[in-house]
Structures are given as structure tokens and as C-alpha cells.
Write a structure and sequence with these properties.
By secondary structure, this protein is of the alpha/beta class. It has ten helices and 13 strands. It is 37% helix and 18% strand. A hairpin with a 4-residue loop joins strand 3 and strand 4. The structure holds zinc ion (ZN). Keywords: Hydrolase.
Length: 282
């Protein structure tokens, strides 16, 4: 079971859980309002978060959704509070509302290429036998940016897109120097081959680097990245993008250059990032 972490009196988070693909959930505690970031991948996930916060006397008022993927929205009704989403996320939630989550329906969507096995498997595992998912409409809909004043602490929500999901938002808490990236830096998984594109990644990193942060939350990482850890990750992404362009998507040449020119050891993580760029190179 995940245990609530307190980063400061204004910032709590529940770590991710790989087995059923639970993302990080966070609470930003203002003097007047408390903002939750993401609704969780099930009612029980949302309930776990709310219960652990309640034991700290923290209660949510409003929840912001990073993007439409199931693992970030299935806990919405359990959250039982107004929600914020951009219009693309809203539209995608309207599509999800029509789906059945029973095995047969899930397997059919996987067959048709609408759903991917990775998510279908995690959904079956997380929801168990109870496949009723009540997905309410988001309450507050924005397009590009939205700023929240929670009392003594603020939050800037910006729609940034990217390969993982075109509706991705990032959330910045300037007073805490915390940046919530959702899944935006992960690969596009709803494709024949999981991939990154050079254009989207360059655009995304430029936006992210315009924020000054000390904590970078990637929803499925175990813990937030420090400034140095994030810099190393961003360097790997930029270098891989650059070399993919230079070598026209030739994996071996990229791998050789990344060690020789940039001194990066070819670990599994590095090879995975290169692989995603190679897959996305056209
Ligand atoms: Zn996602």
C-alpha cells in the first residue's frame, strides 16, 4: 500500500504504484482551498488518498486532471468535488463515459487497436470484479492556461501537449518550486510502436524549462526528481533527439555517439529513450 508523503506543509503526495499503474496523486494546501492533482485510477485509489490526507486534517476542494488516460480519471466520482480539465481532456472523458470496462469489451477494443494491452491488463487488475466506472463531466473547462489562487499558494495550469497525450497539462506551484508533469514526458503508447518525436519533445522541453523548479513530479516515477536529476533526464532526451536527427534514426550510430561524444553510459534506460526516438523517426 502506498503511504502519503509530506514534502512541506503545503504539499503532500501519494507515491505511484507500478503493479496496477497508479500514478502519483498530490494535494496543494492553500489557506482557503486545497487542490488535488489527478483523480486516481479507481475509487479505491482515490479513497486511499483522501483517507490518508484526512488523518492529517487535509481535505480537498477541487481536483485538476493532468490528461484523460484512465489511470488519472477513474477516481473522479469518488473524489466528489469540482474538477478542472482542458477542453481536449473533457472531450476524451466524454468518449470514455460510453465504454464498458468488462473483459469482453476491453478485449474487443484492444483487438481494434483503440485500447492497448498494457492498460487493459492494469484496468482488470486494479478494478477486479467491479467494472462499474462512474465518470462525471469535468466542471471547469479551459483551453490554454488557468491560474488558481488557493490562498497563500497559487497554481498555474498550462496545456502543453506532447507525444504521450495531446491533451497533457503541466501544473506549476511557484511558492513550492514544484512542477507536476503528469505523463507528458513519457512516450506515445497508443501507437504501433511506443515512440517520441523530435519536434514534440523539443517543444515540450522548452516549455518545461521556462519554469524554475526544485521538484519535478513525473506521475509514474517513484518519487519527484530533484533539479539535478531532472537536468540529467532532460539532457538525455535532448541528446537523443539531436542524435536521432543527425543519424537519421539509425539506432547503432546513435548509441555509439551518445557514449563517445556525450559520455552517457548505455544503460537500459538510455537504450529505451533512444529506442523511442528511433521508433518515432520518419
Ligand atoms: Zn498517460
Amino acid at each position: 500500500m502506498q503511504t502519503l508523503q509530506k514534502l512541506s506543509k503545503r504539499l503532500y503526495y501519494l507515491p505511484s504504484y507500478q503493479k496496477t499503474d497508479r500514478p502519483i496523486l498530490a494535494a496543494i494546501v492553500g489557506n482557503d482551498q486545497t487542490l488535488f492533482i489527478d483523480a486516481g485510477n479507481s475509487s479505491s485509489h482515490a479513497r486511499l488518498f483522501k483517507e490518508q490526507l484526512a488523518s492529517q486534517q487535509v481535505f480537498g476542494d477541487i481536483v485538476a486532471i493532468t490528461h484523460w488516460h484512465w489511470d488519472h480519471v477513474f477516481g473522479l466520482s469518488e473524489m466528489d468535488m469540482p474538477s478542472i480539465a482542458n477542453s481536449m481532456t473533457f472531450d476524451n472523458i466524454k468518449v470514455l463515459q460510453k465504454y464498458s470496462w468488462e473483459n469482453q469489451a476491453l478485449d474487443e477494443r484492444v483487438q481494434k487497436g483503440i485500447e492497448i494491452p498494457f492498460c487493459a491488463d492494469a484496468i482488470k487488475l486494479e478494478l477486479g470484479r467491479n467494472r462499474e466506472v462512474n465518470l462525471p463531466d469535468p466542471t471547469i473547462i479551459f483551453d490554454k492556461q488557468l491560474k488558481l489562487n488557493l490562498g497563500g499558494v497559487t497554481c498555474m495550469i498550462e496545456h502543453v501537449g506532447g507525444d504521450h497525450s495531446p491533451d497533457s497539462n503541466i501544473l506549476y506551484i511557484p511558492e513550492e518550486k514544484a512542477l507536476f508533469l503528469g505523463d507528458c514526458l513519457y512516450a506515445n503508447m497508443y501507437a504501433e510502436k511506443w515512440h517520441y518525436t523530435i519536434e514534440n519533445m523539443s517543444m515540450l522541453l522548452e516549455k518545461i524549462e521556462s519554469y524554475d523548479a526544485n521538484f519535478y513530479f513525473l506521475s509514474h516515477h517513484a518519487a519527484p526528481l530533484t533539479k539535478d536529476e531532472f537536468s540529467s533526464f532532460a539532457f538525455l532526451l535532448k541528446t537523443s533527439a539531436l542524435l536521432t536527427k543527425k543519424h537519421k534514426g539509425k539506432r547503432e550510430a546513435i548509441a555509439v555517439d551518445i557514449s563517445k561524444e556525450f559520455g552517457l553510459e548505455l544503460t537500459d534506460d538510455v537504450a529505451e529513450v533512444i529506442g523511442y526516438f528511433v521508433n518515432g523517426y520518419v
